[in-house]
Amino acid sequence: MNLGLKDRIAFVTGASRGIGCGIATALASEGVHLALFGRDIERCQEVGRALRQMHQELRIIERRVDLNQTHTISGAVRSAAEELDGIDILVNCAGGAYRGQLPEIPDQEWERWFQVKPIGLIRMTRECLPWLRRSDQARVVNIAGIFGREPAKFSVMGGPINMATLSVTKALANELGAQGITVNAINPGPTDTGRWRELVSVTARELGVPEAEAEMHMLREVPMGRVVKVQDIAALVLFLASSSAGMISGAAINIDGGLSRSI
Ligand SMILES: NC(=O)c1ccc[n+]([C@@H]2O[C@H](COP(=O)([O-])OP(=O)(O)OC[C@H]3O[C@@H](n4cnc5c(N)ncnc54)[C@H](OP(=O)(O)O)[C@@H]3O)[C@@H](O)[C@H]2O)c1
Q1: What is the CATH number of domain 9-191+228-255?
Q2: The predicted structure's pLDDT at residue 160
């Protein structure tokens, strides 16, 4: 299938590691020029270097952005858009949440993670808008999470943060549709990143069992019986960004192997 992505320009937040890094890698493999955003500029540069080695024809640049420090956002977006000469695709992937129950979570952590997502993605999208409006295939993809629909009992923060992200996605799809910009969200279930590996190790220690057994225990509610891979999410980003997905907007698509219970 020709995705029509060659020579498009994508901005990816959270590109320094995990899911964002996987999304950037998949976009590069389709011939997309990239701006990689993160606080950890050295890790972004490592990702950029590896991708440039594999795809010498691509323009791949890195910019430091701290979504908790608003003054870092607009200059980074503007200079990257000027250097790459446009923006066609914005993937808002930066985020996370403090794991824990209500009494354990300090106010600063609530403020910090809401600043990153969803407020950070609102700010990123606003800064990218002037360039997205000029694209003939403009796409925004927000990485939310299944807890936005079904809050988990072990982590109170993941629910409201991702619910707000889904609501912003829908609101922006309404607002930006008339400007030819689609806005969608992807809801990953537990995904095989560094964070998942740490969780498996902690659970193995708590249960006093080997890691493989702990992982099976953690995945017992997943009908497909395995953890989500970063590539599963990246594949959907490619499709949503593609020329074939021009009529998909305001959608929130789960990638969780059937874990969510709601319809
Ligand atoms: N992994 C999962 O199981 C899972 C499940 C559902 C949803 N998600 C969502 O998927 C997204 C990526 O998750 P992940 O697992 O890949 O997480 P991760 O490995 O912890 O990566 C988080 C990314 O967000 C960036 N980030 C964090 N705080 C930032 C800030 N203040 N300013 C700018 N960038 C910031 C980090 O970059 P720097 O450190 O360089 O700033 C990093 O690249 C998140 O939005 C997460 O909520 C993940």
Answers
A1: 3.40.50.720
A2: 97
